[in-house]
Amino acid sequence: MITLIGGAAILTVVLFLVVRSFSAQIAQQSQDNVLGASARSILDAAVIRDGQVEVDFPYASFSMLSTPSDDRIFYVIYQDDKVLSGYHDLPLPTLLDDPDTKFLTNSYLDETVRQAVVSRQLVGAGLRTRITVSVAQTQENFAGTLARISRNALIFGAGFFCLSLLLALWTTSATIGPLRRLANSVAQRGPKDLRPIAKPVPSEMAPLVSSLNTLMGRLGQSLNQSEEFIAEAAHRVRTPLATVRSHAEATLHRVDKEDNRNALKAMIRAIDESSRAAGQLLDHAMITFRADHLERHEVDFAALVDDVIDRLNPIAEMKDVEFTTRGDRPIIVSGDPILLQNAVRNLIDNALKYSPSESEIAVELRAAPSPRLILQDQGPGFVPEEIETLSMRFTRGRNAQGTVGSGLGLAIAQDVAMAHGGALVLENRKEEGACVTFSL
Ligand SMILES: Nc1ncnc2c1ncn2[C@@H]1O[C@H](COP(=O)(O)OP(=O)(O)O)[C@@H](O)[C@H]1O
Ligand SMILES: [Mg+2]
């Protein structure tokens, strides 16, 4: 638009100058025509009578020059080099034998005057002489005309500029419009919507749309591939580990020697740890992927939490840990159930892991101000200096020594909370224990 307006401004200035100079030329020409006619009418009145030159001015010679602004008129008549009549100091060009009327702009009595000069040979009885007539007129009227012309040209130019401005606006919006509509239709798409763009666009934009469509096709393909890869990798890592573990356990039952038994136990622990780490790594990869392409469903968050607790209950029972659940239900949220389950499982798993045996974990569910799960345990709580950093990937606390883990649980929970527009808040209770708030 700036380019178009700039162009219009330059055109306007050029137009203004051209119109003004052209109109000034025409105005000057019409003044010249009258001046020339006046000078010629005087010259035509010159006759030779009784061997003398006589000039009897017609009245019209000067009256034709009258203007509304009362311009002053000067004249001079020469017979050869001698002034016959008029203003003898009116400047005069040296005329050659030229039948045409000459026009010039001169300065006389501190005023600019336009001057017409004509000359002719008079031949009479025994006399041959050259009569030169010059009529000059001040230029006040002409200046007025010029000012009027300039003003009109200016108005005309301004009108032209306004029109160009409107045209520029119209052209720009007509050009940008389809582009903006295209951008909007792409921006409004859901994160998983990689369908090709079908909206009709101007033919100039067709290459852009077609390369965008190709890109989305490739993107869709690679998204599918990575989804498949994550599932495949999870399967490939977990299954053999489970097999190795069950073999190791079976062998443990058959072996009597204490040394061998200890080695097998250490092996089983290591397998547990790596299958857990692999599992969490894959969970984390899956969560990063799904959080970027959040698939929202209506989920009862309270029921989801109950379900996770049910599944972890066997571990809780082994430790004599009891869950007390209270709060609102159902809590219907719009979110990805797999992600939510994963996050909640990691948080409850932590609470279990860091709780002493024969303790209680308080599970509180709130629907307002935003859906949230508050977990309070009676364990050692967080190390206060570490609270800021614990939610980072692969970060474990000082209090975690002796427990299995990869430092990914809180990172997963935080990613999931943030993907749902919420947050994960870690605090210590006033009494012993940690308080974790997972909000959506
Ligand atoms: N309920 C809790 N009580 C005390 N400390 C906790 C609790 N939950 C988490 N933590 C601390 O936060 C750290 C990070 O937790 P997490 O990311 O789940 O990793 P991991 O459980 O694998 O160590 C833990 O290592 C632990 O120090
Ligand atoms: Mg954990």
Largest sheet: 5 strands, antiparallel
**Tally of helical segments:** 8
| Whole-number total of structural domains | 3
Assign the structural class, choosing from mainly alpha, mainly beta, alpha/beta, alpha+beta, or little secondary structure. alpha+beta
- Named at the architecture level, the CATH assignment of the largest domain is 2-Layer Sandwich
The averaged pLDDT comes out at: 89
- Please write the string of helix (H) and strand (E) elements: HEEHEEEEEHHHEHEEHEEHEE
Helix share, percent: 40-55%
Q: Please count the beta strands (DSSP E, at least 2 residues each).
A: 14
Give the strand line-up of the largest sheet.
Answer: 4-3-7-6-5
What can you tell me about this protein's structure?
The chain contains eight helices and 14 strands. It is α+β, with helices and mostly antiparallel strands and 440 residues long. The chain has three domains: 147 residues, 2-Layer Sandwich (Beta-Lactamase), CATH 3.30.450; 102 residues; 146 residues, Heat Shock Protein 90 (2-Layer Sandwich). Strand 13 and strand 14 form a beta hairpin. The two termini are 45 Å apart.
Topology overview:
Blueprint: H1 2-44, E1 46-49, E2 52-55, H2 60-63, E3 73-79, E4 82-86, E5 102-108, E6 111-124, E7 127-138, H3 140-187, H4 206-254, H5 258-292, E8 297-300, H6 301-318, E9 322-327, E10 332-335, H7 337-354, E11 360-366, E12 372-376, H8 409-419, E13 423-428, E14 434-439
Parallel strand pairs: 9-11
Antiparallel strand pairs: 1-2, 3-4, 3-7, 5-6, 6-7, 8-10, 11-12, 12-14, 13-14
Helix pairs in contact: 1-3, 4-5, 5-8, 6-7, 7-8
Bound molecules: adenosine-5'-diphosphate and magnesium ion.
